[in-house]
């Protein structure tokens, strides 16, 4: 007696039974899967205390457009140009977009997949194969129209941790874009101040050239009148080309500085050939007495390093999840027939559903090596974060120390320059009256020029240190809403609260 044909409910019952059988088999085989080995603790992560930061101190507020406080329209224009289209920022923005695409792909892995396949094949069947007559030796057309579906049941969280790792990478890329913006702005501001310092030094050198040419004319008159000798004349003549050489050297440095500033602002090197900035007065703001713990949350590079840690932590979890089985739910429904005229007939229906299991048992240590590699990457990410924390604290401390020291140096330099200017005036008067030598005039002039250069350098250093402080305090960058400040720090549990979105 022939067995009755299988009905669709029978097929469904059989599929459920098969799934239950495979699920039971999973439980049995879990004990025989590839060994994880002992868990390894990552290296310790630095907190505010290790960086010498004060939990109770308040962080100074930094304006997001802090460079406008220097009241220099040229500097504002350069920075606006750079933020609008500098290649480095465009590359950082592209990395953010790439990380966002990777995050979308990770989200897609959690969803069921559905596809449609359709094919038509004209085939000559061999007469000496497995296909019997009348098909053997004939040409026939076969056709298939089928919908296939797959859903990976993420029992052990492999796709979930991959999603969280991708989220961490995207957040890190976003923070790194902010860090790139802060760095670019500070480099342009520093370049602008450096160019202004060179222009100021060149102006001082040109003033010195005018003075030395005047002294050369006076010396020639004194030699003609028998009041000086050829020795004083040769000294006066050699002093003029010496200053001209200094002016030419400064002109070279100015041209190079203009090239660098133009490229930083996204322009051709020759675009700023006529730029001659001046050293603007320093904004007077109170300096913090202590470095606050909140500094770490306002630094885009530090926040990016923390997101890299989070991504690396999830990668470790993903490497551990790879030791466990993958369970997929597969299904298909469609039509398949030999002959186009039969494709739409009821007998061409083709259905199937069932689970699929893949379990690593013996892999020669590949999965364990992969896990060790992920653990090493986590340690490297933590080490990079610790270094970023210490660097952030050092940069802020250095800027504060420099600003206070430069303020004291400027007070002393102002007194020294006043004395040198007075001595130079007396030396010139005595030389014109025939009471002194030209060597005394040159010596007094050398002291004046040195003090003028030092004054310009200290003014530029004060501006550079202010720029360094703005960058060290975060440059006005603000963390997004996914980071929640708690007790002067950043709460680790908040880092991934958007992973499920």
From TrEMBL:
Membrane topology: Lipid-anchor
Keyword Cell inner membrane belongs to the record: no
Keywords: Coiled coil, Lipoprotein, Membrane, Palmitate, Signal, Transmembrane, Transmembrane beta strand
Chain segments annotated as coiled-coil in the UniProt record: 233-267
One Pfam family hit: OEP
Family: Belongs to the outer membrane factor (OMF) (TC 1.B.17) family.
Localization per record: Cell membrane; Membrane
Entry superkingdom: Bacteria
Classification via InterPro entries: MdtP/NodT-like, OMP_efflux
Protein name per Swiss-Prot or TrEMBL: Efflux transporter outer membrane subunit
